[in-house]
Amino acid sequence: MLLKLDVTDSRPLHEQVAGAIRRAIAEGECGPGERLPAAREISESLGVNVNTVLRGLRRLRDEGVLEFRRGRGVTVASGAGRRAELVGRVRELVSDAARLGYGRDDLIEMIRGMP
């Protein structure tokens, strides 16, 4: 799995790590059930602290994209590719809405009002 961070990106590093892994899954570099490299290995390849990588991995676990299994490491959850893509699009929507002055509650209201 080849991950890259954008040095011009202003987002926190752990979000960039999560985004890079999310993209790799969405693009098919890792499939459901596949094991990710160790956090230390990812941190060395990206040039970031291992705690930064762990924070990004936990975020993806909380989103349902990754599973942490004792003795098996971190694996890609079933259906993670579709979910990762959708979560990425939702994050973009929330970000765009914030730029336009709308909050999450406003977006939820808009979604509920859709047919």
Automatic annotation (TrEMBL):
Alphabetic keyword roster: DNA-binding, Transcription, Transcription regulation
Protein name in UniProt: GntR family transcriptional regulator
GO MF annotation list: DNA binding; DNA-binding transcription factor activity
Cross-referenced InterPro entries: Tscrpt_reg_HTH_GntR, WH-like_DNA-bd_sf, WH_DNA-bd_sf
A family per Pfam: GntR
SUPFAM superfamilies: Winged helix' DNA-binding domain
Domain of life: Bacteria
Domain HTH gntR-type: 11-79
